[in-house]
Amino acid sequence: MTTTIKSLVSLNHQKRNRERVLVRALTFIFAFVSVGTTAGIIYELLKETVLFFQEVSIIEFFTDTRWTPLFASKRFGVLPLVNGTLLVAAGAMLVAVPLGLLAAIFLSEYASERLRKILKPILEILAGIPTVVYGYFALLFITPILQDLFPQTQIFNAASASIAMGFMILPLMASVSEDALSAVPRSLREAAYAMGATKFETATQVVLPAALSGVAAAFILAVSRAIGETMIVAIAAGQQPKLTLNPLESIETMTAYIVQVSLGDTPHQSIAYKTIFAVGMLLFVMTLVMNIVSYFITKRFRERYE
Amino acid sequence: MFAKVRPLFFLLVVAGLVLSACAPAATPAAVTEAPERIVEKTVIQTQVVEVEKVITPTAGPVEGTILVDGSSTVAPITQAVAEEFQALYPEVRVPVGISGTGGGFKKFCNGETDISDASRPIKPSEVELCQKNGIEYIELPVAFDGLAVMVNPSNNFAACLTVEELKKIWQPEAEGVITNWSQVREGFPNQPLTLYGAGTDSGTYDYFTAAIVGKEGSSRGDFLPSEDDNVLVQGIAGDPNALGFFGLAYFEENQDKLKLVAIDNGNGNCVLPDLTTVSQGTYQPLSRPLFIYVNRARVDQKDEISLFIDFYLKNAGQLSREVGYIPLTDEIYALAQKRYDNRVTGSIFEGQGSTIGVSLADLLAKE
Amino acid sequence: MSTTTLIRDVNFERDLSIRKIKGKIFEILAFFAVLLGIAMLLTLLIDVFFDGLPWLSTRLFTEFPSRFPEKAGLRSALQGSIWLMVLTAAMAVPIGIGAGVYLEEFAPQNRITRFIEINVANLAGVPSIIYGLLGLGLFVRQLGLGRTLIAGAMTMALLVLPIIIVTTREAIRAVPRSIRQAALALGATDWEVSRDHVLIYSAPAIMTGVILAMSRAIGETAPLITIGALTYIAFDPKGPFDIFTVLPIQIFNWVSLPQSSFHGLAAAGIIILLLVLLSMNALAIWLRNRLIIRW
Prior knowledge:
Chain A has helices at residues 2-55, 58-63, 79-110, 113-128, 131-149, 158-183, 186-194, 199-210, 212-228, 231-236, 254-262, 271-301. Chain A is mainly alpha-helical. Chain B has helices spanning 2-22, 75-88, 100-109, 124-132, 163-170, 203-212, 229-237, 248-252, 275-280, 296-301, 303-322, 330-341, 360-366; strands spanning 36-44, 47-55, 64-65, 68-70, 92-93, 115-118, 137-151, 160-162, 194-198, 224-226, 242-247, 259-260, 262-264, 270-271, 287-295. In chain B, α3 runs parallel beside α4 and α12 (330-341) packs parallel to α13 (360-366).
């Protein structure tokens, strides 16, 4: 009798172990899909980038201050495009981070369950509005307002795109942060209240630090999105690559340039077309470096409870 | 937990598929035995539109897919033709893409498309690619695009500009230098000059610079470019100091917001772009021809393509007008038809890609 | 002795009121932040509705695009978008959640895992058009799928995968260890712990990630044009291996046309797009609310 039970239990264990191994293998493959994607992207970009750098010097690419591959006299200095990208992204984060974080804290700490159930989905709608709509909204609504406030604002400018982009990213920042904040166990809050802290003090000095890794993850996702965003800047920020810190001027970002050329009339064998792969490669490397750095930073801040 | 989710998931999938299945099919038009010319009159707003349809007898029902891609400038014309053609032959599908002239040629020379829309002639590198892949093409002009130069309606001094003056404004040396209207011509007021133009990667920009400055892609860098002409309309309409260029179709839709500038091509005549001047070729140098390139082999292999091209050439005049472009002259259409009927391949521009200052009629007649 | 106690009380009372006021101000600010987001959304929606409402009609669902605004509709684009969403979700959701589970539950703390994690984080920031270039080279050309719905869906799946993976991981990470340990103590394998306990608690947050991901996918224009999603389609797509167009592309095309009627039509198209989005969101939110467990 004991042997039968023992063998039944053993069979059951074997089955469950097999299942476990199978699932491990399957999910490992799924996780590796991301590696495959990166490999694919690098291959596609590198193919043409190599050909590009056979004709244009790397030094010129990184140090020249003018970007004019589509003009008759071609110059290949990528700095103006990088400047444009960073200018717009910084502006967008200026909008999205404070508003997003504040919204997240409100939803997680102050709002009633019912209010939260209503407000959170409404904010998420902001994320779903197609970027072309944001682009035209920036161009047709935000820019005229900016032009009234600051008459030197050009019809294409970095600020409009930044504002629209900030609001597009806000739900990402708010939602993911709010999930992180809600996940902090109630016991931590209750301990703080027991010590005499106000709600504000608990939220900002206890809950927020506890959820920091989640908030940091939200921040990184948001910055990545801001740097990689294409249509808003293509429509509202302009097509004039230039080195400037003035957000009221027309600039061009790396992504807008890639869209402009790949959908345009340039023959696909020309050097001008190859530039999009070089710019794409640079974009890819930039976000990669940024992510490696932030990965190590967030690892330090992660806290576990219980 | 998953059991609860499953029924809803299925519902969503089914809903999506039902939408496509339930859509009512279009009523098929009758295909008659003998060829007949049907001229259909439709009243659209205040215009009476006449579309000439040629129905030719075929062995069986005409069906298949004709893949078109390329320039977003030419696409509205091709779409109009496709719309009328599909109404006539409902079993034929004619999807039209807007990958751009360059993207269109790449796909065309890879054999991925049947017809390529192009706002410029084929370039040498593209000719090479087609040759490499054994793709022969028939080059056919289908309409003119008028490039209009515009100013803000409050501008009452720049009614006519010469090509020389435009060159002075737009050439690379003008960057940072020509910033005021008074520098353009003696007697122009002391007003700052803001420039708007088509995006630097568009055929419009390439053509404008080739025609005005003399070299494609050669212009100053400090103007406000946009790929979307509607934005240029808005920019110029709101800026009294503005000067810009883009497709005539966009002017026609916004006549109250913009003022057209007549162009003097060096002979003292100030010509405004309109139906006659562009079509007849008196509005120079800013009239550019638009093309389609057809895969020569497939014309004979697929009935639907040969019928479509025939239909295209016969109706391009009327339909291009409807979507804001200028028809070619009857003479040029006849020459194009002849070129197509004889299946003449290759480019009349010898793959050089430029059409400034050449007469389509002359080039076509040479073949 | 009694005087010192009194001073301490007075100081405490004053400080407490200051602290409470600070808290109130903060609460108002935070609420304002939420309001500002909603206000922006409302402004945008009102703007769109104003332009689009006159053009909203059943014609938009039943007619194909046309050069006549009175005859034009979104039939082909609507079907394309729905097909694309379903196919993308079918691929991205299982792979994304599976990858998230692996990274959070099974992955050992070694170099390979770190490599995968950096990969995922990085991919979240790659511009959508680069995915388009990848999709064109790999799915359309190399795998010979052509410019079909399936190629588009695969491209979009790759695009949204990182979002699903990252949010799944965060969701799983939030589940307290005590629940895991309790299940393990009762003899469950690590996979059984995930399947029967952890995933149930993290399901709502995972749904958030899926909502955000699909919202992103539905509005994408540039990568789909790059892989060959076409603008003018006057027929119903017959299945995943057919050519297609999507709502944002059709809207983008209409907005660039010179006739102002098409701008109104584009706005109407945006309204429909938002309606599709809303129903997707509503479904996911309903699911999320049913699955949430607060501990």
